[in-house]
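Quick one: structure tokens for this chain, please?
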Amino acid sequence: MKNLSDSQLYVLIQKRDYVAFDKLFDRYWDKLFKYAYNILADQQQCEDVLQEVFTSIWEKAPSKNVEYIPAYLYNSVKYKASNSIRSKKWHLDLDTIDLSDVTDDESLEIPSEDCRLVLLEESMSQLPPKCQEVMVLKSKRGLSAHEIAAHLGISTRTVEGHMQKGMKLLKASLTQVALFHLLKQSYFFYLL
């Protein structure tokens, strides 16, 4: 595998060869991480972007022909990083908001644990199918990434990518629910 070109590795990936995928991943991870870091300057965001790019490659390879792998990878990272910047511009981090004035008010309802579980279930049902399947195996059956990979017949890195994507989407979804709950309670002005 070491002597195979990127194009040869990609042909093997199209045939669902995990070893070829791992080789391409290892060959480009560091370079792409540095490239993404120059754009985002945030380690966690860079890791998220790269996981999305490599997960996308694995999922789309059988139906997508790519002629020049490096250009495809760098363009994908650039596109995902740009999307990350755009979405971050409108992201409101509720952890940074001082709600001390709000929490003293007796009219603020904190959702019960049952309600939170229902919200979590609803959010999980909105995940992409494969991502949802991985998250269910992880959260409800307690399987490790390696066990999930063996169960689904995919690589451990793909499972990790799905778990990372799932957690990111769940966090965003539940953050929106929390924000909606605050707005519903007429505390919008405390956020300004």
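The chain has ten helices and no strands.
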